[in-house]
Amino acid sequence: MSRIGKKPVAIPSGVTVSLNGADLTVKGPKGELAMTFVPEVEVAQDDAGIAVTPVNDTKRARSMWGMQRTMVSNMIEGVTDGFSKKLEITGVGYRAAMKGSALNLQLGYSHDIDFPVPAGIKIETPDQTTIIISGIDKQQVGETAAKIREFRKPEPYKGKGIKYAGEYIFRKEGKKK
Length: 177
Hints:
By secondary structure, the chain is α+β, with helices and mostly antiparallel strands.
């Protein structure tokens, strides 16, 4: 039994939800998101909110139950508050800056990296070593942060690279004489 799936998703004030068969559209102050449910779950809307239930007792239906409910919850949270990820750059000469609609990264390579900002994502650089990625779609925000981090992952000896804020980098000892 899915403990998460049992709870209905509450709909806060200022958010409109329209359910048309397996298609769900959520509109809020920050924007609009839509998704289509998998056929293994049923969705119903009532006074308590949106309830997701499995169609049968197969393993796939039970695994989709909690995931689909969480996706609805993330959509509602996204259109009301939004999501953000913070990246930190560590290393001598490593820096980031916004140039027009692209993120310019200098990460110790022989060339600068220009990362085009995807639609629906907002990237800010309050200083040269901090990148803040925000948007209403949790999956898209996380994927964009992972793509930027992929350009120079933190290395274990000096910790140079791009890391998530609060991420612990396992450090190794260098060569001994």
